[in-house]
Specification:
The protein is an alpha/beta fold. The chain has a single domain, classed as TIM Barrel. The chain is built from 11 helices and 12 strands. Strand 1, helix 1 and strand 2 form a beta-alpha-beta unit. It binds S-adenosylmethionine and iron/sulfur cluster (2 copies). S-adenosylmethionine binds next to strand 3, strand 5 and helix 11.
């Protein structure tokens, strides 16, 4: 413990954010996250009995809030596939934290109203392109762009604006969508954020040559819309923020590969089957569901979380950067092995751990 910050990890970082995955399933097969060749018909998703119930999620979230968490983001997989999600939101909203949700937007048109009524305040929608062929090349699903845009409109209507719109940029696939996305959201008040394609999990055959570095994304935008930097809104914020000089809105870049931000990483993740992960790139998690179901008290659960956090030394992205600098160039693509919960040597997939 540190007097000023409360619970801190081995590198002095407090515990402030919690991402809660409510399902490992998704109706998209984004090539960078759940490529169809690995997440096809034969893929075994978690059985229902393994998923935390809403009551269990609420209890664990309360324990995390007691340890200093100020922000909870509901994610997945695709969180809107979890039946009755507004009920979970209504159970979490009395915790008094900044409660947000990340979604692919495909089901948002129907659910934005109920989620807002239940107490949701903020939504991030992933949208990688504005034209259907490029969108399909990224997401490998049947959803059309206009359905996601209808979800965004419904979120605005429900009072969830301003939103964040996230686009992963993959070299040679959707770079040409950067400027149209910025242009489309001109004057909307929504922040458009571009994410460097990351080597999460082991299934997406990631290669450093597939990323478009943040500085290149910014250069592309600046050719059309001159930018000026903004101060970070909060500690641990992952996006570098900029304001368009023409007053058209805010953009952000998330440079997890080219310029890692492990130094400020205050984020824990809770998988849908109740494992605590202290890094997006972890290969194993700490089981909280078993002690919870065996009757541990809140104080005992808090003790487990606190001891895991106190020992945390994760800084995967910083180490990746120094590795690739030492090797003098791009790292080769990761061998294709699908990570399963419980297999310690492989990185866990993002759809399982919660993006
Ligand atoms: N299904 C929801 C969605 O897509 O918004 C929530 C879960 S998804 C795993 C959360 C975020 O992770 C999305 O914005 C997605 O674009 C991002 N993401 C997934 N795989 C990624 C990768 N390999 N590199 C960078 N971002 C990735
Ligand atoms: Fe599904 Fe989101 Fe992963 Fe795409 S990024 S496959 S929408 S979980
Ligand atoms: Fe945080 Fe791990 Fe990402 Fe570094 S690599 S910013 S420690 S989640």
């Amino acid at each position: 413990m540190n007097e000023a910050e409360g619970l801190v990890d081995a590198l002095g970082r407090p515990l402030r954010d919690l991402r809660v995955s409510v399902t490992d399933r998704c109706n998209f097969r984004c090539t960078y996250c759940m490529p169809r060749e690995h997440f096809g018909r034969s893929h075994q998703f978690l059985p229902r009995a393994e998923l935390l119930s809403f009551e269990e999620i609420e209890r664990l979230c309360r324990v995390f809030v007691g340890l200093g968490v100020k922000k909870i983001r509901i994610t997945g997989g695709e969180p809107l596939l979890r039946r009755g999600l507004p009920q979970l939101v209504s159970m979490l909203s009395p915790l008094g934290v900044d409660l947000a949700l990340t979604t692919n937007g495909s089901l948002l048109a129907a659910l934005a109203g109920p989620l807002a009524l239940a107490g949701l305040r903020r939504v991030t929608v992933s949208l990688d392109a504005l034209d259907d062929p490029t969108f399909a090349a990224m997401t490998d699903g049947r959803t059309r762009v206009e359905e996601v845009l209808a979800g965004i409109a419904a979120a605005e209507h429900a009072g969830l604006a301003p939103l964040k719109v996230n686009a992963v940029v993959r070299k040679g696939v959707n770079e040409h969508s950067i400027v149209p996305l910025v242009r489309h959201f001109t004057g909307s008040g929504h922040a458009v954020r571009f994410i460097e394609y990351m080597d999460v999990g082991c299934s997406n055959s990631w290669d450093l040559r597939d990323i478009v570095p943040a500085r290149e994304i910014l250069r592309t935008i600046e050719e059309h819309f001159p930018l000026e930097p903004l101060e970070p809104a909060a500690t641990g914020e992952v996006a570098r923020r900029y304001r368009r000089r023409d007053g058209g809105g805010e953009i952000g870049v998330i440079s997890s590969v080219s310029s890692p931000f492990c130094n400020d990483c205050v984020r824990a993740r809770l998988s849908s089957d109740g494992k605590l992960h202290t890094c997006l790139f972890s290969s194993s998690g700490t089981d909280l569901k078993t002690p919870l179901r065996l009757g541990s008290s809140d104080a005992e659960l808090a003790g487990i979380v606190a001891s895991v956090w106190a020992a945390r030394e994760d800084r995967y992205s910083e180490l990746r950067s120094s590795r690739s600098r030492t090797n003098g160039g791009p790292t080769p693509s990761t061998p294709v092995q699908l990570a399963r919960p419980g297999q310690a040597s492989r990185k866990i997939e993002m759809s399982y751990i919660g993006g």
